[in-house]
Amino acid sequence: MQDTAPLDVKLRRGIIRKPDIAFMSREHKKRMTTKHWGIPDLVVEILSKGNKSQDRVEKFKEYQEACILEYWIVDPFLQTIEVFILENGAYILFGKWGTDEIAQSKLLAGFQVAINSVFE
User: Fold this and answer.
1) Which end of the chain has the smaller Cβ count within 10 Å, N or C?
2) Is 17 part of any domain?
3) What is the total count of domains within the chain?
4) Pairing of strands 15-17, 112-114
5) Does residue 39 sit within a domain?
6) 47-76: average pLDDT
7) Segments of the chain assigned E as strands
C-alpha cells in the first residue's frame, strides 16, 4: 500500500501523525525540519470507511491536546466539512457545511472552500 500522506507531524514524544493536509504559518516555520513537522497551525483529515473513528476520536483528542488551532474533518460520505477551533484548550465546532455551502476558516481570514467543488 502506498503512503499518500504528505508528511510526518510530531505531536509529542512518541506520537507521530500523517494528516491529509497540514498548514504551518510563517510565524511557526522554525517547527519544520527535514525529518518531520512540529505542531502545525491547521490540519485536515479526509474520512474513509476504515478511519472514521480514528479521525473523529483518536486524532481529534491528540490534535486538541497538541493545541493545533484548527481541525477540519472532510466527510465524503455525508459530503460535509466540519471545522473545529481551539478555545480554552478544547475544540468547539466553528461550523459544519454541506452541499451548496461554503466552508471557511477562522484561523486563515478569507480562506473558503466551496463544498460542491470538493465533492464533484
Assistant:
1) N
2) yes
3) 1
4) unpaired
5) yes
6) 93
7) 9-12, 15-17, 21-23, 42-46, 70-75, 80-87, 90-97, 102-104, 112-114
Examine residue 3 and state whether it is found in any structural domain, yes or no: no
CA dihedral 56, 19, 35, 15 (to 10 degrees): 0
CA distances from 25 to 14, 43, 94, 106, 118 (A): 24, 12, 20, 14, 23
Quote the cell numbers at residue 7: 508528511
CA distance 95 to 118: 16
| pLDDT band, very low/low/confident/very high, at 6 (cuts 50, 70, 90) | low
The cell numbers describing 51, all together, are 478511519
**Between residues 5 and 107, the one the model is more confident about:** 107
Judge contact between 73 and 28, C-beta under 8 A: no
Query: Residue 21: which CATH number?
Result: 3.90.1570.10
Check pLDDT > 60 for residue 20: yes
